[in-house]
Write a structure and sequence with these properties.
Layout lengths: L2 E2 H8 L3 H9 L7 E2 L5 E3 L1 H15 L4 H8 L6 H33 L7 H4 L1 H23 L1 H12 L3 H24 L5 H14 L8 H13 L1 H8 L5 H13 L4
Antiparallel strand pairs: 1-3, 2-3
């Protein structure tokens, strides 16, 4: 079956503007253009759009999706299995949060007492599980099992105040880094402030801080495409800029 832009948009629940944009950036081209100048999509394009929307639902940016789906090694069947695993992980995370909400309701209604630690267990475990799924193998190989386990325990045992401060620092790093990037100088005052804030944020998750480990992590932000995609999502080049700023901050530029 074939679809026009309008009919495919209605079928998929997305705007025709989005479909036209997907065409412009080369992520979803129509099968053909008819004699009237309308984009026409066939079964292959329908399947490709489904794949794109799977990635979007999992939080991937369009540039990252394009990079994945246009790679010569892209395999749709394998990608679908990976989607399934990620969705199962997401469901597990949601189950933890639902359990946390149910406990909170019971506590509010006086049916149980909920400790401050319990109030944040769902959020913390969800964060740990997501990080393990995305980066666990690489991080454990780079820093060792003990270091990663200690970091996870630190997160689990954070007080409410510590957790909130870690989240505040993460947001401040993002904001200051964005402004520093506009100035374009990784050695500048604002960039070095971002590097220092990044160090402060790390101390909530690392049992011991070292400049060498900090510099090594910054290199990973560029070398690993998943970290790079995270930092570059809004402004390409941000991951490299942060790495350079941290290398200047720590004095390790290997």
């Amino acid at each position: 079956m074939e679809y026009t832009v309008q009919k495919l948009g209605q079928l998929a629940g997305i705007s025709t503007r989005a479909l036209r944009y997907y065409d412009e950036i080369g992520i979803l081209k129509p099968a053909r253009i008819n004699s009237s100048g309308y984009r026409i999509y066939g079964q292959a394009e329908v399947d490709r759009l489904q794949q794109i929307l799977f990635y979007r639902a999992l939080g991937f940016g369009l540039e990252q999706i394009k990079e994945i789906m246009t790679a010569p090694s892209f395999n749709r069947a394998k990608a679908l299995k990976e989607h399934r695993e990620k969705l199962l992980d997401k469901r597990k995370q949601l189950d933890l949060l639902i359990a946390n909400v149910e406990k909170t309701i019971a506590s509010t209604e006086g049916r149980m007492i909920m400790t401050d630690k319990e109030k944040f267990e769902g959020f913390k475990q969800s964060m740990i599980d997501e990080n393990e799924k995305k980066y666990g193998k690489e991080i454990r190989e780079k820093y060792g099992e003990d270091s990663v386990n200690q970091s996870n325990e630190m997160l689990k045992n954070m007080t409410q105040e510590e957790y909130e401060e870690a989240m505040r620092l993460a947001n401040e790093v993002t904001a200051v880094l964005a402004e520093a990037y506009k100035q374009g100088d990784p050695a500048g005052e604002l960039a070095q402030k971002a590097a220092d804030l990044h160090k402060q944020w790390l101390t909530y998750y690392w049992s011991g801080y070292s400049k060498e480990a900090h510099a090594s992590l910054a290199r990973m932000y560029v070398d690993d495409e998943r970290f790079r995609a995270y930092y570059d999502e809004k402004q390409p080049g941000t991951a490299k800029f942060l790495r350079d700023a941290i290398h200047i901050y720590t004095g390790f530029k290997k």
